[in-house]
User: What shape does this take?
Amino acid sequence: MYAIIENGGKQYKVSEGDVLKVEKLGAEVGQEVTFNVVMLADEGSVKVGEEVASAKVTATVQAQDKYKKIIVFKYKPKKNERKKQGHRQPFTAVKIEKITL
Assistant: This one.
């Protein structure tokens, strides 16, 4: 059984036991969170829309961290204009505990 959940404008395919990095959530490590279910699928049947309105995906927060640094470098040729920036996007690592219908 797997589910498609929505978080931070993105959709993720999850099943029980998966560890997943999602957009930063305002939750402490060890706290339980729930996600909106978009689609639910198990042995041959797919449920969408009103059929999954009561479905829940429960997860536990494992860590609050940041991704690896990326370098943003902008310049204008022949003008001696340069700008170098670094960026680290924050994320929340969650472990999917159960999928209920």
In short: The beta strands are 2-7, 10-14, 19-23, 32-42, 45-48, 56-66, 70-76, 81-87, 90-100. The chain has one domain: 2-100. Residues 2-100 form one domain. DSSP finds no helices and nine strands in the chain.
